[in-house]
Amino acid sequence: MSDKLTPFFTSTPLPRRTFLRAAGATVATSTLVLAGCSDDDGENTPTTPSTPLLSYTNGVQGITANNVVFNYLYSLHQLTLAFYQAVVAAFPTGMTTAEQAGFTDLRDHELIYTESYKYLLGANAIAPLTFTFATLTLTTRAGVVAAAKKFEDLTVAAYNDVVMRFSTDSTGKDYLLFAGKIASVKARHAAYVRDLEVAGSFAGTDVVTSTGDLAGLGAVLTPSAVITELAPYFTVTVVTSNTAALA
Amino acid sequence: MNILKLLVNLTEADPELLARLGSRREALTRLGSLTGKAAVATAPLVLGSALRQAYGRGAQTITDSLSLALTLELLENNFYSRALGLVPNTPAVPAGFIPSDLRPGIVTVQQHEQQHVAFLTRVLQASGADIPTNLNFDFTGSKNGTQSAPFADVFSNFDTFLQVAQLLEDTGVRAYKGQLATVQSDRVFLTAAARIHSVEARHAAHIRTLRRNRNATVKPWISPTDQSITTAGLTDAVYAGEENTTQRVAGQTIPFDLLPIDAAGVGQTALQKVQAAFDEPMTATTASNLAGLFIY
């Protein structure tokens, strides 16, 4: 499936700068922050991770919880962008023209989100990441739609969680509203791809609580739960446990 | 330590209190660990503030937000329930009004609205707040025949029904978003509002997909290329502001015209994607006015 990773390098009208950067594993990983290693216990032999670690604090001293959360969201959008870019660069067989236009919108929205978060985060921003989709089947419509559903549903659940992680001052309220503006469009994305997979499955019982006091409420997942689900697609080991902002 | 004893009594009388206290639970836990003068001095402030918010007294903004949400959910639930023939003493819809293959999706939406009504009613009642009652709905928009009906065939023409559904769902999404900041101080309500907000957005996308499949020009996300279904001065507030291409966060304005977001190489048209990529909030007043089109 390595051919599925190469679309970044194929001729596309995408801004070359952006995607060469996104694909530049060497550059990206060299600037990743080693985090989560406790070095105050000299008796332990430090374990050497097989992959670099990614911390959403980005090693920035005094980074605010708001920016840690934005870095987390930024990484989710980087992943989804890379996925949709791979899809758009080589549409699977069986995908209609209308569906191709729909997935192009999804790609374009993700590009807008990633560039927005990157801009807003400024020096706090984590580096561009690389991903692997080798375990996904991107050559069939069913494979693409199933993967899109997974990524969109997880991101919606992630957004439902992060709303409570922003500060309650005016800055935090701005961050909350900005995330909220994206959250509902992500839910629209999710419903769209779910209806593509099975008509009428836009809000199935796997993503909306169906019984009990919380019936009718959308799924919510903590950062660690989301990252556990998405770990197979990251080429770095993502750490969420080293910051109270994502606990 | 009378105040701590009061808290114990309150939680015995109302087991859900601690859950409703939400973010203030930590403050109360810390309070419990204090001793002597510090606790005596701090307890009334912490507890007073917490209970006021938990029960809504003196915190009108949070209960106002929840009450607005409940009004919108009652409206939506009644709308879908009528179409499904679930509301007694209302005119029956024509046989086959909802195409049989689309009915399960409409049932899903209606059930969610009913669940949202139940949830919001419960938390409002638990907060001691007033519940909107005796609301009468007229989805033709005629206010029970007192004015011309912009949606006269809402329950006989499925396409009109879907248009009204889209207006209601998109309004709901924007209205919840407009209340996020208001309820932010209460984690329980904030998370619940966000979770309902995401479900409403799923509904909106589904309704839009149904319309698209019936040859309407509309995307699952609010797009400037959508065929207009609003009337100036009546329903145009549903989408007013969605044309926004300026996003400003904590003093920073995102320079979309300078960012490499034009993946498709379409120039200024890329900004149309910016409009679609962000759903904008709606004020409580606008949402109330829009709901008022269907309430008499």
UniProtKB/TrEMBL annotation, chain A:
> In terms of domain of life, where is this protein from?
Bacteria
Family matches, as InterPro entries: TAT_signal
Which PROSITE patterns does the protein's record reference?
TAT
Quote the protein name from its UniProt record. Answer: Ferritin-like domain-containing protein
Q: Give the species.
A: Hymenobacter citatus
UniProtKB/TrEMBL annotation, chain B:
Pfam families to which the protein is assigned, alphabetical: Ferritin_2
Superkingdom field: Bacteria
Q: Which InterPro entries match?
A: Ferritin-like_SF (IPR009078)
- Its recorded name reads Ferritin-like domain-containing protein
Q: What is the lineage of its organism?
A: Bacteria, Pseudomonadati, Bacteroidota, Cytophagia, Cytophagales
